[in-house]
Design goal:
- The structure holds 2 protein chains of 2 kinds.
- By secondary structure, chain A is of the alpha/beta class.
- Chain A has 3 domains: 87 residues, no CATH class; 106 residues, Glutaredoxin; 52 residues, no CATH class.
- In chain A, helix 6 links the parallel strand 3 and strand 4.
- The longest helix of chain A has 14 residues.
- The C terminus of chain A is likely disordered.
- Chain B has a two-stranded antiparallel ribbon with strand order 2-3.
- The N and C termini of chain B lie far apart (69 Å).
- The chains are: A alpha/beta, B alpha+beta.
- The interface between A and B is large, with 100 and 43 residues.
- Strand 2 of chain A pairs antiparallel with strand 1 of chain B.
């Protein structure tokens, strides 16, 4: 993933007029099917990364699709300029729309992505008395606020046992602030808000936390080498197709997906 | 034996240098503390259907990205 583009201040500013969707490749078959309609490599396989700008109805690409923004843009500022130009063509709907919490599809992925980004995780743990929608609606406006946008990675679960690797968490429902572990397979509970906590209290606590810690940065090769040595394994939901990744994994004898080693989808090309 | 004037001057210069270094280190640590915060970033939808519903409801264009949250099977790294 090209961080120079996506962490650029001008691009971040321009992103506020876009709906930004970042999918986890090889973690959902339906999403993979959609991504294949956007961009595949010369071999016809879904590659590790995909990037494109699209119309709101996804019917038309607004830039050349590719593996990363630099397939279509020579610099982060040229991407930002184009995004600003595109945004002017779309009149925002006047209807009052409740924001949708920008979250991952589950907590397993949420913790991992949180660790990948070097950002803290916020997890809604719902149960019969404390519906997920209530907590998500509480968090959604905060997630897009000027002070907090892009500073936390959100996810939801109704199964507290999914968080058994989170140190300090006892399984109660609520909104959890978690510091992810180095590999996103575990974490440490920083704070638990009861499901009925007022939005302003959560906002203040998240803001204070974000202002008191740094974004974690990691050395790519050291992380991968150490992870391999320590047996840190991530099994993807669907087999990996990217040939470079497969070759790298074959060299180290690592499994390439929940469907087992081999990495090719059944009946795939 | 009393120290010579040149020796006194050198000692005084060393003390001044030490004070400057200490001040410089203090300023550096303050700067590091001020930088200790998470910068603003892009608010990413991580679920396709959520993102598409948002785009439809707000008529905003889409920036779509996909990346694998593992490198050679090791999680915690894009």
């Amino acid at each position: 993933m090209d961080r120079s583009f996506l962490s650029n201040d001008q691009v971040i500013e321009a992103s506020r007029n876009f709906v930004c969707i970042r999918l986890a490749t090889y973690e959902d078959e339906a999403e993979a099917e959609f991504l294949r309609t956007v961009y595949v490599g010369r071999t016809g396989d879904l590659e590790n990364t995909v990037f494109v700008l699209m119309t709101p109805d996804t019917k038309q690409n607004l830039c050349r699709p590719g593996r990363s923004p630099n397939f279509a843009f020579r610099s982060p500022s040229s991407l930002a300029i184009e995004m600003n130009k595109i945004a002017k063509k779309y009149k925002a709907s006047n209807a009052e729309v409740d924001p949708i919490l920008p979250q991952l599809k589950d907590v397993r992925l949420g913790l991992n992505v949180s660790s990948c980004d070097g950002l803290p995780s916020v997890v809604c743990v719902a149960d019969g008395n404390n519906p997920a929608e209530f907590m998500q609606n509480l968090l959604a406006p905060l997630a897009y606020s000027e002070d907090l946008a892009g500073k936390f990675v959100y996810s939801t679960t109704t199964d507290p046992s999914m968080l058994k690797t989170v140190q300090g968490y006892s399984g109660k429902p609520g909104i959890l602030l978690i510091e992810p572990g180095d590999y996103g397979l575990d974490g440490k509970l920083v704070k638990l808000f009861s499901p009925t906590t007022e939005s302003s209290v959560i906002e203040k606590a998240l803001s204070e936390y974000a202002n008191g810690v740094s974004k974690v940065s990691k050395n790519h090769s050291t992380h991968v080498r150490t992870g391999m040595r320590e047996g840190k394994v991530w099994k993807t939901e669907i087999p990996i197709e990217d040939r470079n990744t497969l070759q790298a994994m074959q060299r180290t004898n690592r499994p390439s997906g929940r469907s087992g080693p081999g990495g090719r989808r059944p009946g795939g090309n | 034996m009393n120290p010579s004037p040149s020796r006194l001057l050198k000692t005084s210069q060393r003390i001044q240098l030490l004070i400057c270094l200490t001040a410089s280190i203090s300023v550096s640590s303050c700067y590091a503390q001020q930088n200790s915060e998470i910068p603003s970033g892009i608010a990413w939808h991580g679920v396709l259907t959520d993102g598409l519903a948002d785009a439809k409801a707000t008529n905003r264009p889409i920036m779509l990205l996909s990346a694998a949250p593992q490198c050679a099977g090791v999680p915690g790294m894009w």
